Amino acid sequence: MSPSGKTIRLGVVGHSGYDGLAGALATLRRLASGLNFALFFEPDIAEAQDQRLEPGSTLDALMTLGGDGTMLRGARLLEGREVPILGVNMGHLGFLTCCPADQLENSLMRFARGDYTVESRIMLEVTIADRTRKERGRWHALNDVAVHKGGFARVVPLRVSVDDAHIATYSADGVVISTPTGSTAYSLSAGGPVVVPTLETILVTPISAHTLAIRPVVVAATSAVTVQADGAAEELMITVDGQTGATFGTGDVLTVRRARKTIQVVRFPGSSFFSTLREKLGWGGIPERD
Asked: Catalytic site residue 102?
């Protein structure tokens, strides 16, 4: 039961592609009453008797059952509301999540009695404007936004600026602009640095740059990063958190800045960012010798 005896309004988001989802939902329903949880399920995983999670629902916390992608989707569903997100990993990596599925029951009990901390993570506000400077898209990203080419095999010229100061025109396959939380995602694969997720910075990482002089840049969270396609032969793509986005062409301007709202991520005592690095990425591991 929650320490105050207050009912905890808990939104539940799940990925139906995971075999363990049904069991996790059964555990959640079984424990809810005793832990003072009022559950609100997104429609795709709700049963007939369940309360539905609707846009704008008043919540005290959100639970995601899946992987990192499910957690990113849950963060967007909150639409800027700053409530704790408890990510339960049902997949392989689950870097953003706070507990594996086989520890769900214990984690629910710890959460109900307040045995957890909350980390505040910055988000990005992403906008695209056309050549007339009319906005034609706006999103929020917890991890990153990527400008990348489509199905053609050639480099693209991307003019990148920070606070109107021109950094360079990248000749590359694209560029990733990420939060510290996203530093261990696409940015890391592109050669970007690992950044402690509670820091407040923005990372700019070229994708397969065609000159060794171009390197990742870390800028202040107060900065505005803009990207323009300098005469790209074909339309590019903008992808936000690897899940949604739009086309991007010559004359368009992508602007990325820190969002006004943050995301609150649940962490249980005994775990740390560096222990997660060691476990999930084999960080600092030395192969055993026969």
From this structure: no
Question: In the structure encoding, which two tokens stand for residue 31, read together?
Answer: 């424990």
Catalytic position from the list 50, 68, 115, 230: 68
Strand (E) or helix (H) holding 69: helix 68-77
| Cα–Cα separations (whole angstroms), residue 103 to 107, 109, 269 | 6, 10, 14
User: Does the residue 14 lie in any domain?
Assistant: yes
Length of the chain: 290
C-alpha pair distances (Å), 160 with each of 149, 150, 210: 16, 19, 15
162 and 227 in a single domain? The answer is: yes
Encode pLDDT of 142-165 as tens digits.
999 999 886 666 678 899 999 989
Specify the pLDDT at position 285.
61
Supply the range of the domain harboring residue 107.
Answer: 8-116+268-281
Q: Is 107 helix (H, G, I), strand (E, B) or coil?
A: helix
Q: Residue 289 domain-assigned? A: no
Residues 71-85 pLDDT 10s: 888 888 887 788 999
Cα(166)–Cα(182) distance, integer angstroms? 24
In a domain, 237, yes or no: yes
- Rg (the chain; Cα; Å): 20
CA proximity to 86, closest of 47, 39, 51: 39
CA pair distance 261, 141, nearest whole angstrom: 11
* Cβ-based neighbours of 44, under 8 Å, separated by 6 or more: 14, 16
Q: Which residue has the tokens 């936000």?
A: 240
Are both 67 and 145 inside the same structural domain?
no
Overall domain count for the chain? 2
